[in-house]
Amino acid sequence: FLFIVFSCQEKQNVRVYKIKKAKPNNVSEEPIKSKAKPKFEWVVPENWEEVAGHSIRIGSFKLPGNGDLSVTSFSGSSGGIKANVNRWESQIGLAPSTLDMIKQISEDRISRLGRYQIFELKNEKNQDLSILAAIFPLQEITLFVKLAINPKSMNQHRYDFVEFCDSIKYSSNG
Predict the structure, then answer these.
(1) Any idea what DSSP says for residue 2?
(2) Which of 39, 40, 122, 140 has the maximum number of C-beta atoms within 10 A of its C-beta?
(3) What average pLDDT values come out for the chain (174 residues) when binned by 10 residues?
(4) pTM for this structure?
């Protein structure tokens, strides 16, 4: 069996085309991460006054005893626990702690959002300011609740602070 092909053109041109290979339907692409920050709800103690805060705050409250409470969120781990606790320590004049020291002063809790940690930071030499803070490591963000307050007033607000943190949940309104 013999098969012969003839062409009408005298020139013998070879043409090469590159065509992208189609992706099979079963190949999954990277999930698209939402740029929208999740919204949260919480139960506010009666003696806290909601105030306008800085643009990065998603919640801002004034507490009796000159307390300033902020709720903020940042993408990822936002530097991690050690970096954030060390930053807060520097704000009240304390030397940075090691991760082992930080673990000793942290309190593990569970809220409606899941697990979180509370850190109580006092500088005995600085009677003007102390910090009570909570870190919520969530899926794509980290939520922070920070109370900067006079050390003498911290104990009277600790229970309300913990109750507030325990009450935080994702908003049902989007």
Answers:
(1) -
(2) 40
(3) 53 57 50 60 94 87 92 84 95 94 94 94 87 93 94 91 95 74
(4) 0.76
